[in-house]
């Protein structure tokens, strides 16, 4: 489990930073536009129309009141046409307002869905371009996690920013009306609301900092939730009786979360009530001012309703704009993580003018003094590697756990870049070839291959996804890896869903899964095949057969085999013995036995176990 990172000082976030975060909004709107230009435009137009409605309704209301008062005073004047026209107009405005609200909600929710899908796809697309070691870095991982988690937050932000613009335009209309009567009313309004805004902003800062500092723990909570209740973990949790341990850890963490969050929520609520009281005081002061002017005859009764209504609405709008500002700017700060994620570039060198990949390979892969350190480790996982994998050669890698066998293979596949030294292919630096071509020419099955919760046929086709519809090739690959016999036993054969997660899937045994994974290696005509402990879960007969076939299949091709079974390892042309990341012996089985070194020692040790 990764350790807590990215602690943020709660005082770090100032109003200036919030305002600065708003500069993320143009990039954000560009994304909204890309996800649906027509709906973004429609939403904007609808909101523009909607923003004029409050002042229009209030003004028509004022005209109605003034007309009623006039008709009341002059009872002789019995033409009520103008009054009914005004009432009809207000009725139409009310209906249009309601229709606009519904249309805005509809557009927002449709646009929100499109936007959320679009950004999720963008995250996946970008993640696919990044290097393996970037995924293994916890700072990066936290960033990815936050970018992914905030999909819903981002969709809400979109609606909030749009509503913000709408409310601000509504306010501009209302303020114009108020200023026409008395500018002081505006000053009173600002004084009443400013403290509430500053208070909101302060507490939102604290909320953001708290939730950001909790990211690693939240990930741990998710992990514990998965450990405690999932089909994949249930077996070990029961056998080791781990439920109590996992639940205790979950409770400790979630209690801490609750305490931290509730302290902040209580303080926020207390201050919020105080600030809201200030707001009400400001509103009533203005109300008294308008009433006095109306009683003095300086304003009409219609003016009174218009001004009081404008003031009330303006106050509500200003409060929501200000409090929304803090959540908009907070959302905009979260956008930093999202936009930063897209700024992360893969570190692995991409050849600008890649050379054509040799086919056939003539001289092979040469490691020249290659060394590699994992970025989070001082130790060398591989060092001073000097050897050539010749074309058509079968090379076995043996060595104790952690000797650096898998790392060597990952370097060959350019999942990592050597920390020192270089790898050549046909005397040219491997970095000068296109990475996709290299991977196309390598067929690799790792020991921790994925058990895809998909159909058998899809599970095999992942070895060469371009051939997903090539049933003949899929079945041929299955025959090579002995997975065909398994397919015949399954109710739906190649269309059988594997794993228990979906659609009446069937779970396979470890060895059966391994046969399925091995079939992936045969899906393409790769020049080099790499099998990292491919037979560990196979029974003795299956292992023998798999290797018979492997030898036939790989005739003329290079192959690298990683195995702890010496009966497998000795089938190779040469054997490389690794220890603490370095090559300590390399040669044929006979050469190494006669050398009487580490290989001979380990070989006889294992042979003795079988006697
Ligand atoms: N992602 C990683 N981050 C940091 N260190 C790693 C990582 N993967 C492996 N290592 C370290 O690198 C060293 C070599 O590991 P590697 O997986 O290459 O060994 P191996 O010979 O394949 O072992 P095994 O036989 O157990 O599969 C080990 O000390 C291991 O702890």
Short description:
The chain has 611 residues and is an alpha/beta fold.
Structure, described:
- The protein is elongated and about 125 Å long.
- It is built from 23 helices and 10 strands.
- Among the domains are: 15-204 and 265-343, ABC transporter transmembrane region fold (Up-down Bundle); 451-525, no CATH class.
- With 611 residues, the protein is an alpha/beta fold.
- A hairpin with a 2-residue loop joins strand 9 and strand 10 (582-587).
- The protein has helices at residues 15-21, 25-35, 37-51, 53-73, 81-129, 132-135, 138-149, 151-181, 184-213, 215-228, 234-239, 243-295, 301-343, 405-412, 435-440, 456-461, 471-480, 483-489, 510-521, 540-553, 566-569, 589-595, 598-610; strands at residues 365-372, 382-389, 394-399, 420-425, 428-429, 442-445, 528-532, 558-562, 574-579, 582-587.
- Bound molecules: adenosine-5'-triphosphate (ATP).
- Adenosine-5'-triphosphate binds next to helix 14.
């Amino acid at each position: 489990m990764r350790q807590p990172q990215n602690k943020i000082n709660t005082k770090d976030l100032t109003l200036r930073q919030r305002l600065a975060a708003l500069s993320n909004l143009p990039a954000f709107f560009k994304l909204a536009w890309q996800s649906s230009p027509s709906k973004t435009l429609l939403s904007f137009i609808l909101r523009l129309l909607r923003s004029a409605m409050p002042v229009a309704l209030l003004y028509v209301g004022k005209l109605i009141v003034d007309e009623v008062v006039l008709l009341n005073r002059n009872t002789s004047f019995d033409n009520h046409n103008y009054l009914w026209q005004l009432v009809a107009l207000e009725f139409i405005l009310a209906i249009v307002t309601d229709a606009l609200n519904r249309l805005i909600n509809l557009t927002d929710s449709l646009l929100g869905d499109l936007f959320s899908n679009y950004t999720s796809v963008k995250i996946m697309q970008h993640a696919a371009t990044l290097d393996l070691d970037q995924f293994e870095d916890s700072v990066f991982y936290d960033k990815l996690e936050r970018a992914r988690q905030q999909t819903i937050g981002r969709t809400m932000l979109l609606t909030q920013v749009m509503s913000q613009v709408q409310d601000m335009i509504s306010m501009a209309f209302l303020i114009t009306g108020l200023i026409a009567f008395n500018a002081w009313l505006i000053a009173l309004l600002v004084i009443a609301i400013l403290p509430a805004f500053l208070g909101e902003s302060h507490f939102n800062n604290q909320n953001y900092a708290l939730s950001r500092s909790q990211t690693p723990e939240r990930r741990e909570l998710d992990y514990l939730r998965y450990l405690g209740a999932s089909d994949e973990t249930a077996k070990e949790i029961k056998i080791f009786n781990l439920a109590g341990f996992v639940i205790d850890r979950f409770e400790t963490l979630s209690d801490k979360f609750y305490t931290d969050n509730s302290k902040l929520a209580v303080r926020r609520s207390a201050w919020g009530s105080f600030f809201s009281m200030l707001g009400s005081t400001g509103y009533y002061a203005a109300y008294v001012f308008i009433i006095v002017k109306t009683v003095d005859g300086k304003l009409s009764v219609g003016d009174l309703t218009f001004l009081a209504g404008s003031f009330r609405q303006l106050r509500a709008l200003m409060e929501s704009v200000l409090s929304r500002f803090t959540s908009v700017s907070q959302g905009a700060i979260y956008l930093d993580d999202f936009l930063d994620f897209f700024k992360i570039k893969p570190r692995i060198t991409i050849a600008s003018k890649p050379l054509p990949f040799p086919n056939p390979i003539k001289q092979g892969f040469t490691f020249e003094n290659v060394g590699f350190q994992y970025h989070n480790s001082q130790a060398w996982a591989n060092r001073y590697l000097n050897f050539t994998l010749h074309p058509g050669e079968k090379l076995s890698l043996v060595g104790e756990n952690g000797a650096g066998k898998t790392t060597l293979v990952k370097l060959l596949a350019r999942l990592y870049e050597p920390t020192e030294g270089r790898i050549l292919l046909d005397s040219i630096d491997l970095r000068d070839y296109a990475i996709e071509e290299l991977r196309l020419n390598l067929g690799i099955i790792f020991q921790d291959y994925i058990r895809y919760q998909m159909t058998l046929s899809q599970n095999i086709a992942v070895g060469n996804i371009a051939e997903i519809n090539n049933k003949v090739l899929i079945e041929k690959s299955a025959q090579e890896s002995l997975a065909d016999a398994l397919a015949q036993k399954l109710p739906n054969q190649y269309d059988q869903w594997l794993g228990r997660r979906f659609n009446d899937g069937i779970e396979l045994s470890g060895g059966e899964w391994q046969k399925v994974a091995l079939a992936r290696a045969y899906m393409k005509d790769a020049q080099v095949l790499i099998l990292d402990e491919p037979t560990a879960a196979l029974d003795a007969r299956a292992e023998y057969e798999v290797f018979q076939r492997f030898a036939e299949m790989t005739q003329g091709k290079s192959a690298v085999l990683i195995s702890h079974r010496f009966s497998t390892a000795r089938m190779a042309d040469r054997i490389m013995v690794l220890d603490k990341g370095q090559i300590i012996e390399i040669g044929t089985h006979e050469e190494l036995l006669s050398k009487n070194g580490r290989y001979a020692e380990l070989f006889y040790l294992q042979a003795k176990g079988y006697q």
